[in-house]
Amino acid sequence: MTNIETKRFEKIFNKFTNSKKINEGILLIENTNGEFSLCKGYGGKGLNSPFLMASITKLFTTTCILILLEQGKLSLNDKISEYFDENIIKGIHVYNGKDYSLELTISDLLFQTSGLPDVYLEGKDSLKNKVLLEDFYITFSDMIDRVKNLKPHFEARKKGKAYYADINFDILGEIIVMVSGFKLSQAYKKYIFEPLGLSHTYLSENENNRIPQVYYMNQVIHRPKLVISSGASGGCITNAYELMIFIKAFFGGKLFNKNIFNSLSIYNKLQFSMGPIYYGGGYMQIPLNGVNNFFMGKGELVGHSGSTGSFAFYYPMRDLFFVGDLNQMANPSLPIRISMQLAMAAK
């Protein structure tokens, strides 16, 4: 990287953190071999400061699924009805009067092509409104019941369709527990944290764990019960240093067979509210030259963002990894926008 590019990265980070909406932030940029490394903090946030990963946790869940696939313990074509009592699953996907629930597969969940609704955003009593008012636990059974009371968006595996919904990964988390024989936190530890030496990344299981606060505008929100309930779809805590180690391993083939991973690069565009984001097998893809983008660049970003302002993306065209956190729930597009602009600045 040249000094000019480094200054561009710093300018972009400063522009985002100078916003009145941002109280703290952290950015770490590296290439694969670490010859280039840039770290910028704001508001007291540093390289080792903990933050809530939110939906970046889905990359951990994806990793476990791929490892279990490699071990021959499951198949992406497995129907989820093989893992759950029929009474639990029946009724979660009724579309145009037909119940497709027992036909849903692990692949449908991983690729977000199940058509299942998002209980966090949808419905009269959506969880998004509730979380701003109070902290609460929600069980897997509760989430399944909520899904059954909402309408799916399309028939599963409808060509070219994808709909982002946490429940897809909540179900995958339950399958990981059944297949591995470990609690989800233990599975993450065995398959990811220990092999990579991540000692400050963890899935929160009780309120004694350190669970960072998040911001909604300038309001501090501390929701340990909800974070604990989020599990496989969004319950992990990490820091920028360890998230960088993970994202390099995820896209570098250090955790699972690279050939298996290559089969995941089939992308479908997500719902309109998700902007320019496509979804592959367990991760996001953002084309930088799409007609829906305000920016025009080359190549693509792959990785994941979180609703709390967290981001972890790889830009293959320039061999750059962007990880960090803007800690702001009020605008979920922020981590996408900063990642795109950083990639655009790498000329």
From TrEMBL:
Gene3D superfamilies: DD-peptidase/beta-lactamase superfamily
Domain Beta-lactamase-related intervals: 48-331
InterPro entries attached to this UniProt entry: AmpC-like (IPR050491), Beta-lactam-related (IPR001466), Beta-lactam/transpept-like (IPR012338)
Highest taxon listed in the record's lineage: Bacteria
Pfam entry (one): Beta-lactamase
Protein name as it appears in the record: Beta-lactamase family protein
